[in-house]
Amino acid sequence: MKVLLVDDEIEFVNTLSNRLGMRGISTDVVYDGQQALDYVAEHEPDVIVLDLEMPKVHGMDVLRQLSKTHPDIQVVILTAYGTEEREKEAEKLNAFDFLNKPVDVETLVERIRGAYRFKAEKTMAAAAFAEAGEFDTAKEIA
Fold it and tell me: What is the pTM of this model?
């Protein structure tokens, strides 16, 4: 499982990376939205944990771009600035989950693993339809 953490709070995100590592989830870390988009262009993670309020490119703009170019990447929003409006917008852009800081690490681990399972199940379903000759259905799922 490839996980990318995106947050401009350097100390927070590095600590989070270490805590996830202690729970068997290795991560890569970037510190702003533009770095996230650049990272995804070269390495496609399975799951991204994405902050919203960041310099250069806002997290919601990153999510918007990913939903168009990499819809198979599962995104968990993790923000200190969560509102109902933002949560609804993220849901429309197919974010897997929306969490507010501070978050219990075990809760985040559950959500990351859930996002990965969702992606894997979606990929397997698409492959099964493709194998059965249902290419249009496979494209819709993937």
Answer: 0.88
